[in-house]
Structure formats: C-alpha cells, structure tokens
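thought: user wants a sequence for this fold. calling inverse folding tool.
action: design(structure=
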C-alpha cells in the first residue's frame, strides 16, 4: 500500500463554513471533498430529454401536483366536518 500524499488548500472563511456544513459525522474533510466532487450536477442532465419528452414530463408533474392539491383539499374538508 502506497503512502498518502497531502496537499494544503486555502479557503475563504465562507468556503470553509460551507464545506464544514456538508461534512458528515465521522467524515474527514478529504472524505467530504471526495463525496461532493463525485456528486452529479443537474447541468449534467441537460439535453438528455427531447423538448417533447421534457414537456410530457412537465405535464405529468403538473397533473400530480393538481391531484395532490385536490386530495389535500378533500382531506381538509373531511377534518373540518
């Protein structure tokens, strides 16, 4: 097993606090950086749907939101009765 190399990195206080807030229990700052650096950005998903597919997805989401609101309204009415 090879020896681990270390690097010093300067961070602004704001950047340090943001990194610290993302740090999970038992995780080193190196672990945190590796985890965050491995996360995918929503921008990585840009262009994977056609305009038509994106519109269908928007419509389906809107429909589910409408159904959820209607269900919540019915439940609220039942509780108020």
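)
observation: tool returned 81 residues.
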């Amino acid at each position: 097993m090879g020896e681990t190399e270390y690097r010093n990195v300067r961070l602004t206080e704001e950047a340090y606090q943001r990194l610290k807030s993302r740090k999970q229990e038992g995780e080193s700052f190196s672990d945190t950086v590796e985890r965050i650096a491995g996360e995918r950005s929503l921008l990585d998903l840009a262009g994977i749907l056609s305009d038509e597919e994106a519109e269908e997805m928007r419509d389906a989401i809107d429909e589910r939101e409408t159904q959820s609101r209607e269900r919540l309204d019915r439940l609220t009415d039942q509780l108020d009765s």
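thought: summarizing for user.
answer: Here is the designed sequence. The longest helix spans residues 51-80.
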